[in-house]
Amino acid sequence: MWVQALDIILEKMKALGFDFSQILALSGAGQQHGSIYWKAGASRALTSLSPALPLHQQLEACFSISDSPVWMDSSTTAQCRQLEAAMGGAQALSCLTGSRAYERFTGNQIAKIFQQNPEAYSLTERISLVSSFAASLFLGSYSPIDYSDGSGMNLLQIRDKVWSQACLGACAPQLAEKLGPPMPSPSVAGTISSYYVQRYGFHPGCKVVAFTGDNPASLAGMRLEEGDIVVSLGTSDTLFLWLQEPMPSLEGHIFCNPVDPQHYMALLCFKNGSLMRERIRDESASCSWSEFSKALQATEMGNGGNLGFYFDVMEITPEIVGRHRFNAENCEVSAFPRDVEIRALIEGQFMAKRIHAEGLGYRVMPKTKILATGGASHNRDILQVLADVFGAPVYVTDTANSACVGSAYRAFHGLAAGAEVPFADVVKLAPRPRLAATPTPGATQVYEALLPQYAKLEQRIVSQTRGAPE
């Protein structure tokens, strides 16, 4: 299906008269964690493609597993526990690979296939991620997995940038040979296959820059720099962070940075996002965003010490469910006045984001920029609270198709000598984000006092939820 999709896209572009000969370099992004299993002998088919036929007709017999496991697969809990046990626990695995074992991560998917379908595994000569699979199609040969997307497998040592032999051995035999060595994300993987030159008119010197995952490509598309943070305010809220010194933990993910192999990126997801904000809006602001904004304007920074935790569905970061409100004396109360409720929600959501980002090694720097996207980024009063809590300016940017834009930037970066040239220099002429909010004077003092209090209360709720003594 993926191969045929590429055929369809290229044929449509050809029919529209697109001039492929103008492309000097290309790169791309694939959904993270998914995997493709090439059957023994597939490499010969890749290197001998006939320009007279579409790709899918020539490659349909090249796969040992017909249905690729993707990120939505959550059937590998047993394999996750096995991997963590083999590595000395979840924290030990996270310190090595950037994440504890997750069901969607590729190493655990591979382990399940080996355990349940050993014959298909033994017939596999190469395992690709979705990203390196797509790059392989353009190269006409197997593309290495890049460091950044490879970080989402529970197999790569993120500091040494090599496969962990212990993790490989815990998942399946001969896995190093089936994966091939990983490569730096800004690398040129090779030149385009002659198939595309003859069938579509690509320039024979067109470079194929290593493809990466969709999340790392989005970081490139947003043009993050050291100390920057993306806050995506959607159904779930997501944070992208640029890190220099990561501190892997049991929550969130640390990946190798897709544009600077010496640095890292982190990903944190918060399930109670816009739906929670909309529910409090309906309950406390008469279903009106205008009234919601007025409540934020009418209440002071720090909310008089009143703090709230709002998780109508089980939260990911941290694992808490329910609503919990505390007054300035840290005593739990059953309700807040409407305006206080609204500010407690927004302040609490952003304080949680900052606390958990710092738990992964993030630090606000003098040059830090916050890039806000998603539906709530259109509300200036919400963005003002974000600026105040983080003590940094907030910018808004149109990030439609940011993974695609990031792939184009990465192709340009790879063409300009990759890691030898700073990514920021390559994209410096791209459109800049628009300033939306700056910290209110005095905000730093207010939240520096409040953040430790919020963190302690969060830990109290977690302990109570798990039934552990405080």
Structure description:
The protein has 470 residues and is α+β, with helices and mostly antiparallel strands. The protein is built from 20 helices and 19 strands. Strands 12-13-11-10-17-18-19 form a seven-stranded mixed beta sheet, with helices on both faces. It has a three-stranded mixed beta sheet with strand order 1-8-7, sandwiched between helices. A hairpin with a 4-residue loop joins strand 5 and strand 6 (162-163). Helix 15 (289-298) runs parallel beside helix 17 (380-390). It is globular and about 70 Å long.
Low-confidence stretches: none
Give the helix proportion (percent range): 40-55%
Instruction: Give a quick account of the main beta sheet: strands, pairing sense, barrel closure.
Output: 7 strands, mixed
Number of strands: 19
Give the overall average pLDDT.
Answer: 95
Termini gap: 53 Å
Please state roughly what percent of the residues sit in beta strands, choosing from under 5%, 5-15%, 15-25%, 25-35%, 35-45% or over 45%.
15-25%
Order of strands in the sheet with most strands: 12-13-11-10-17-18-19
Number of helices: 20
Coarse shape: globular
Question: How would you describe this structure in keywords?
Answer:
7-stranded mixed β-sheet, single chain, 42% helix, 20 helices, 470 residues, alpha+beta, 16% strand
Short account of what is shown:
This protein has 470 residues and is an alpha+beta fold.
Question: What is the topological layout?
Answer:
Elements: H1 2-15, E1 25-26, E2 29-30, E3 35-39, H2 42-47, H3 55-59, H4 77-86, H5 90-97, H6 106-116, H7 118-122, E4 124-129, H8 130-139, H9 147-150, E5 156-157, E6 162-163, H10 165-171, H11 175-179, E7 188-191, H12 194-200, E8 207-209, E9 212-213, H13 214-221, E10 229-233, E11 237-243, E12 253-256, E13 264-270, H14 274-284, H15 289-298, E14 307-311, E15 322-326, E16 332-333, H16 338-359, E17 370-373, H17 380-390, E18 394-396, H18 402-415, H19 423-426, E19 434-437, H20 443-466
Parallel strand pairs: 1-8, 2-9, 10-17, 17-18
Antiparallel strand pairs: 3-4, 5-6, 7-8, 10-11, 11-13, 12-13, 14-15, 15-16, 18-19
Helix pairs in contact: 4-6, 4-10, 6-10, 13-18, 14-16, 15-16, 15-17, 16-17, 16-20
